[in-house]
Write a structure and sequence with these properties.
The protein is an alpha/beta fold. Helices cover 35% and strands 20% of the residues. It folds into 2 domains: 33 residues; 119 residues, Glutaredoxin (3-Layer(aba) Sandwich), CATH 3.40.30.10. The strands form 2 sheets. A 5-stranded mixed sheet has the order 5-4-3-6-7. It has a two-stranded antiparallel sheet with strand order 1-2. The C terminus is likely disordered.
């Protein structure tokens, strides 16, 4: 073997080792990279009651907690989450555990579920999901200007609509709560 052939083989061995280490380094960098967390977008923000308007009802007769009066609770709570669901809605079933966990972890907010359905259906859902969140039955959600389910209003302690969105997951609920009232320019 000549010196030229030996140096040529040595050069290819160095190139192969370098390629191997570059590929390994790239894999490690890619594994370590944490994707930039972006706040989920709220869906159907233009739907329903206009922002900054007063919610049309403050007192609710619930199936599982008696009468809930938001006007009385306003001094104790930082805000209210009013979720519109339908007993026959399969997407709504994803929201129930999310609201239940949120209510347990954030007692300074009051969650309330307004559910379209007959009393037996609503009671079955309360039992199935072991809901401690107050649940009210509705015949129609039209007076609250929503026809989309599950739809959640985030209300200020005074009952003004701050934000609203279709919500099924905790990330979207967090994005909804992260909304703040932007002061009007005078």
């Amino acid at each position: 073997m000549t010196l030229f052939n030996l140096s040529y083989a040595f050069l290819w061995a160095i190139i192969a080792l370098q390629s191997y280490f570059i590929i390994q380094l790239g894999r490690k960098i890619q594994a370590v990279k944490i994707p930039a967390e972006t706040m989920p977008h709220l869906i159907e923000e233009d739907h329903g009651l206009a922002k900054r308007t007063l919610f049309p009802q403050f007192q609710f007769e619930t199936v599982n907690k008696g009468i809930i009066d938001l006007a009385v609770l306003d001094k104790q709570k930082h805000g209210f989450l009013v979720a519109f669901t339908d007993a026959k809605c399969s997407s709504c079933k994803e929201l129930y555990p999310v609201l239940e966990r949120f209510q347990q972890q954030s007692p300074h907010f009051q969650a309330l579920i307004l559910m379209i359905g007959q009393q037996p259906e609503v009671t079955e859902i309360i039992n199935q999901y072991e809901l401690t969140v107050p649940v009210t039955t509705l015949e129609s959600s039209l007076s609250f200007e929503t026809r989309i389910f599950p739809f959640v209003y985030y209300l200020s302690p005074k009952g003004e609509v701050i934000a609203k969105s279709v919500v099924q997951r905790r990330e979207t609920l967090n994005a909804l709560i992260a909304q703040t009232v932007v002061p009007k320019a005078s």
